[in-house]
Write a structure and sequence with these properties.
single chain, 195 residues, alpha/beta, Spore Coat Polysaccharide Biosynthesis Protein SpsA, Chain A, EC 2.7.7.106, 3-phospho-D-glycerate guanylyltransferase, GTP binding, GTP-binding
């Protein structure tokens, strides 16, 4: 079985989820970001083919069972490139920390596809951004997270599989995303009372 290294970049501090600042205050945004990141880390720990999970962030979270890679503030793409180089990680999967619906099955699908094709990308639900990048081989790759990142990534690896799944596609960036997440979370919580 292929053993993957997973890197989860997580922006901490006052800029956390800044696009939600009109809806949530700083403490609420930080609590939301923490909860989503913790959910992603827990999910990754349940994927058998992932041998190690690395949190790329300015500060460690001691209660989480993972490796910490310090974010030096050089920007997401440069930080990811440095982390991949430093870890000599191959295969490696990058998974964003704001995917509250992510499941182990989502990850297994992504990693299986990458093993077959050499790389796999998980687009956001709008089809423009990239929420996860799985690189099975050690070929050079320039991370291009940001506006229209999926097109940038596909330009480099036209052979990559595209894995569109709800758990990989739903991230929380905008007030409308937050509304949908809170509605869904409330439904999930109410259903647990009937289990």
């Amino acid at each position: 079985m292929t053993q993957w290294a997973a890197i989860v970049p997580w922006k901490q501090g006052p800029d956390t989820k800044s696009r939600l600042s009109a809806t949530l205050d700083l403490a609420e945004r930080q609590a939301l970001a923490f909860a989503m990141a913790q959910s992603v880390m827990t999910c990754l720990s349940q994927v058998q083919s992932i041998a190690s999970v690395h949190l790329l962030a300015p500060a460690a979270v001691p209660q989480w069972s993972c490796h910490w890679v310090r974010d030096e503030g050089r920007g997401l793409n440069e930080e990811l490139a440095a982390a991949r180089d430093h870890m000599r990680a191959s295969p490696v999967v990058i998974v964003h920390a704001d995917l509250p619906r992510l499941t182990a099955d989502d990850m297994a699908c992504l990693l299986t596809a990458a093993t077959s094709t050499g790389a796999a990308f998980a687009p956001d639900r709008h089809g423009h951004g990239t929420n996860a990048v799985a690189l099975w081989d050690s070929r050079p790759f320039q991370f291009g997270f940001g506006p229209d990142s999926l097109a940038h990534h596909r330009h480099q690896r036209s052979d990559a599989a595209i894995i569109a799944r709800p758990g990989l596609g739903f991230d929380v960036d905008t007030p409308s995303d937050l509304d949908e997440y809170q509605t869904r979370f409330a439904i999930d919580k109410s259903l647990k009372h009937f289990e």
